[in-house]
Design goal:
The complex is a heterodimer of chains A (206) and B (112). Chain A is built from six helices and three strands. With 206 residues, chain A is mainly alpha-helical. In chain B, helix 1 crosses helix 2 and helix 1 crosses helix 4. The chains are: A mainly alpha (206), B alpha+beta (112). Chains A and B meet through helix 2 and helix 3 of A and helix 3 and helix 4 of B.
């Protein structure tokens, strides 16, 4: 009889769901964590039977919430390593509620992406709507419009860039996109550093 | 209910300190740590918070871990030990704790 068969079915179910919830971790680490919790439950079983095991399961919370404590920082680390834009952005947005500087960092990242995207759209649409996309200035009101303006010419505006807006928009868009990626990696690195999970933070005592 | 929430936050804040202080006394495995911290301090650390904490401390290099087949036990046990970095961090926490405790005590003395 395997040691796990000593455990009540609730514990076996918990461990199987817990292992699934840890799937973002490397298999060796996942296996070690599951083994440790399994041994914890076996210890409780030896000491006090099924009731002790069920009390322990209550202490762990659900398998997903229990796994969250292990997964979060590992997930952030793998997002940084993989440089996946979607993954890094998702983690940045999750961190937004964890403090003012993370909130501000998320706002900056979102603005950078919005502007990068807008510049990309402008560059693509210029050949399609040449008279409606550009940079106009208006002498009478000392103002300017950059982007899509269907009536700028009728309003007396002077367009300055012409088709130069295409390479300018692409260059600026790529630049802002790159900056947004850097900002995301820096924010996530800041979080890991704060929790002593990077090599630079090993000497965290101050 | 608010008092219980505040006490819960206090326990969460002190959990790492309590675990490192316990490991300073000697190596211990998960169930032992839970029992000993509860018995010696009255601070209840839940299973759900202990193991992620130990995992984090191990990644930070503050504790080390090894599996041991204890005589008479029906399963292996993962023992944790305080590492040099953990001891250094514990000392810093101890200093900070004394300052904090003295500050609050001084405030309470003046207000009573």
């Amino acid at each position: 009889m395997s040691s796990e068969s000593k455990l009540p079915s609730e514990a076996t179910y918990f461990l199987s769901q817990f292992e699934i919830a840890l799937r973002k971790l490397p298999s060796e680490e996942r296996s070690e964590i599951v083994s440790e919790l399994r041994c914890h439950l076996l210890e409780k079983m030896d000491r006090g039977g099924s009731n002790e095991v069920l009390n322990s399961l209550a202490g762990f919370g659900g398998p997903q919430s229990c796994a969250a404590g292990f997964v979060e920082n590992a997930s952030i680390r793998s997002a940084i390593v993989s440089r996946s834009v979607g993954s890094m952005l998702a983690h940045n947005l999750k961190l937004a509620g964890r403090g003012t500087r993370y909130f501000l960092a998320s706002v900056i990242v979102l603005l950078l992406f919005v502007f990068a995207f807008a510049l990309g759209i402008i560059s693509v649409l210029k050949p399609v709507f040449p008279s409606q996309i550009g940079l106009w200035t208006f002498e009478h009101s000392n103002s300017f419009i950059f982007g899509f303006a269907s009536e700028a010419s009728q309003m007396g505006g002077a367009e300055h860039l012409g088709y130069w807006i295409v390479p300018l928009g692409i260059t600026l868009g790529i630049g802002l996109f790159t900056l947004a990626n850097y900002a995301m990696r820096h924010t996530l690195g800041m979080w890991l550093d704060k929790h002593g999970l990077t090599s630079q933070s090993r000497r965290s005592t101050s | 209910m608010e008092l219980e929430a505040w006490k819960s936050q206090l326990r969460k804040g002190a959990a790492e300190f309590a675990v490192l202080a316990l490991l300073e006394q000697g190596d211990a495995y998960g169930v032992q740590i839970l029992d000993s911290v509860g018995e010696q301090s009255g601070i209840g650390v839940s299973e759900g918070s202990l193991y992620p904490l130990l995992n984090k401390l191990k990644k930070q290099g503050r504790v080390t871990a090894r599996w041991v087949e204890d005589e008479g036990a029906t399963h292996p046990r993962k023992y944790y030990a305080l590492a040099a970095e953990g001891l250094e961090h514990l000392e810093a926490m101890r200093t900070a704790w004394v300052e904090f405790r003295d500050g609050i005590d001084a405030l309470l003395e003046k207000s009573s």
